[in-house]
Amino acid sequence: MRLELSTMRRVQRNPPCDHIIRLFEWFYTEDQVILIMERPPNSVTLFEFIKHSKGHPTERAAKVIVRQIIVALHHCNVCGVHHNHTHLRNILINRDTLQLKLIDFGGARLIAETPSEERTLGAVSRETAVRSGCECLYRVLCALIKGIPFWIRLSRECTDLLQELKNDRTWNTLENILDHAWFKEASTVNRGERN
Q1: CATH of residue 82
Q2: How many structural domains comprise the chain?
Q3: Which residues contact 164 (CB under 8 A, 6 or more apart)?
Q4: Residue 172: partners with Cβ closer than 8 Å, 6 or more residues away
Q5: Residue 127: how many other CB atoms lie within 10 Å
Q6: Do residues 50 and 144 make contact, with C-beta atoms less than 8 angstroms apart?
Q7: CB of 111 within 8 A of CB of 82?
Q8: How far apart are CA 191 and CA 16, in angstroms?
Q9: Is 24 exposed, middle or buried (0-12, 13-18, 19+ CB in 10 A)?
Q10: What residues form DSSP beta bridges with 101?
Q11: Which of 19, 63, 130, 136 is 20 to 30 A distant from 92 in Cα terms?
């Protein structure tokens, strides 16, 4: 629990990230640490959002969601934290606005700046953090597009990003993924999807 507090305090640094749950206060007792965090309105886990989604998700919604996850994970990495437990149940999403928050830093690890820190602190390398982030993004994107009906084809850019994430293309940072064509305004939306 103390590592969770430590990593959460690191990611709260200025400027804060809108896509990471806010830590307001913390208290120590004899046998535990109590964390007081924000409770985003009208939010459910991304797992519940996908499961109970009325109609079907769109590629455009998937893009909005994945972009926010990239921003949150990149912010963590810049602060020296590897979330290490990013999955559909550790992401809260507002059902109306699609605003999301990364939660649960209980499994987070520090990012080592040197090989000796990896050994002594049990930290992970920056490359490991980025690779793990890419694997997470691949799984989340697959879960999101799984609900898109088969008659709506995904854009070339979306399928290209999926392939690059799956094939473990080397990204320097998670932020570099935002330079991919899928995130550009001119990218092709799925045919059959209304604007």
Answers
A1: 1.10.510.10
A2: 1
A3: 180
A4: 130
A5: 12
A6: yes
A7: yes
A8: 37
A9: exposed
A10: 92
A11: 130
**Alpha-carbon span 12 to 24, nearest angstrom:** 10
> Of 107, 102, 78, 96, which is closest to residue 13 (Cα–Cα)?
78
Tokens 């886990």, residue located: 45
Pull the structure tokens for residue 192. 């059959």
Q: Measure the CA–CA gap between 168 and 134, rounded to whole angstroms.
A: 8
Put simply, whether the predicted model's pTM sits higher than 0.85 gets the answer yes
3-state secondary structure of 87: coil
What domain range includes position 93?
Answer: 2-183
**Terminal C-alpha separation, the chain:** 45
Token representation of residue 140: 């989340």
DSSP code at position 175: G
**Is residue 120 one of the residues assigned to a domain?**
yes
The CA radius of gyration of the chain, in Å to the nearest whole number, is 18
Q: What is the β-pairing status of strands 100-102 and 91-94?
A: antiparallel
Tens-digit pLDDT profile for residues 42-99 = 999 999 999 887 666 789 999 999 999 999 999 999 999 999 999 999 999 999 999 9
Residues 155, 120: Cα–Cα separation, whole Å:
45
- Alpha helical stretches, state H, the chain: 2-11, 46-51, 59-78, 115-121, 126-146, 156-166
Tokens of 95: 């059902």
